[in-house]
Design brief:
This protein is mostly beta strands. It has no helices and 35 strands.
């Protein structure tokens, strides 16, 4: 049986105008078999759903990652039409709702009392976390493809034209821009920028990880997480789309058709690396292992420090598993049929499974206050008790 899966790829076309234009090209990828059927196993516990809420109409496609954002005692969501909602993490009660009426293709960001939304039209909109009132909005040069991040002075925004912009957290004024050229082809989406003390960290579509000064956007260091190889543009794709992880003074980054690596935040020196490809993402426990979903939806446990494989779970093949999230003694992933899978961190065995929606789950599950939060592409947000 042959099935086809659409993989979103961005094609940038420079026109003879001041800004240029952006179009989206969908490339067909052919598989020789359908997604792996669900394997039978003996559950070791039964997941308990605490509450479930609709967050709007969800995303416009099965690939849009409209991930929620947890800040304080609330979890914040947005749908493709810019309907932003805040819910209490404990009971799921809606705190406020703000209809921005903008097209959105990425999840919620924030920091320092603000909830921040980026639009497909390049607008950045800051809302008050307490009541959803609009504080300011700023128009940038192209579509916002990753959740913005903020501290008390700067908001970091990553746009489709290869820019990382530093905006004033007070009024949205553009303080600085840093831009890298964008390859002819790139995977749809980008990793979210991160703020670490006086640095801005960002991964690029050319496989580069860059540390910038948060004050003026100047380069402090850069490293290659992947190097383009091959004769065709598809073979040369090396996007850093997996979100970065910060543990102490270490930043972890992973690239498509590249590697996962750990770097010193101050100097950029590499601590260790492992050749592996992911466009989905990973999680880090900060001492023993890194858990990663590769391009075939295999789930890996990789030893911290050496990059050696500890185990590999292969029974989610082609099920479009999300990035793993560490939850106690388990890692948790969602899949294309709305299932949530609990996998033992010790040996990779399945221990529990729950279908929470009929729609795909593409956003990495998040954890707070002893609860696991999972959102599906139809806008269903589910809170599950962690074992």
């Amino acid at each position: 049986m042959i099935i086809r899966k659409l993989i979103p790829v961005v094609l940038l076309i420079n026109l003879l105008t001041a800004c240029g234009a952006i179009e989206y090209l969908f490339v067909e990828e052919t598989y020789e078999a359908p997604p792996e059927p669900l394997v039978e196993f003996t559950p070791e516990f039964e997941p308990k759903t605490l509450w479930r809420e609709s967050t709007g109409d969800g995303s416009e496609s099965a690939y849009a990652d409209l991930s929620p954002w947890i800040q304080g005692s609330n979890i914040y969501t947005v749908d493709a039409a810019g309907d932003v909602r805040a819910y209490q993490t404990d009971k799921g009660r809606q705190v406020w709702r703000q209809k921005l009426k903008v097209s959105v293709a990425t999840g919620v960001g924030g920091g320092s009392g603000k909830v921040i939304i980026g639009s497909q039209q390049g607008e950045v909109i800051a809302l008050d976390e307490a009541n959803g009132d609009e504080l300011w909005r700023q128009k940038l040069t192209s579509e916002v493809l990753a959740p913005p991040k903020a501290n008390s002075s700067v908001v970091l925004v990553r746009t489709a034209d290869g820019r990382v912009s530093g905006l004033s957290a007070d009024n949205g004024k553009v303080l600085w821009n840093y831009q890298r050229s964008v390859p002819l082809l790139s995977l749809r989406g980008v990793s979210a920028p991160e703020i670490v003390e006086d640095k801005a960290l960002a991964g690029y579509d050319n496989g580069k990880l860059v540390a910038l000064s948060l004050t003026d956007g100047k380069v402090i260091w850069e490293q290659s997480v992947a190097v383009p190889r091959g004769r065709t543009e598809l073979e040369r794709l090396v996007d850093i789309d997996a979100n970065l992880k910060i543990i102490g003074n270490t930043v972890y980054a992973a690239a498509f058709q590249g590697k996962i690596a750990a770097y010193d935040i101050d100097t950029g020196n590499e601590f260790w690396s492992r050749d592996i490809s992911t466009k989905t993402g990973f999680d880090v426990d900060g001492g023993e292992a890194v858990y990663l979903t590769d391009d075939e939806s295999y789930i890996w446990s990789i030893q911290e420090g050496s990059g050696d494989s500890l185990w590999r779970q292969t029974r989610l093949l082609r099920r479009n598993a999300t990035a793993p999230t560490i939850v106690g003694d388990y890692v948790v992933v969602g899949d294309l049929e709305g299932y949530v899978h609990w996998i033992a961190r010790s040996d990779g065995r399945f221990v529990a499974r729950e279908q929470i929606a009929k729609a795909p789950i593409v956003s990495q599950p998040v954890v707070a206050d002893g609860k696991l939060f999972v959102i599906s592409t139809d806008g269903r947000l589910t809170a599950i008790e962690t074992p």
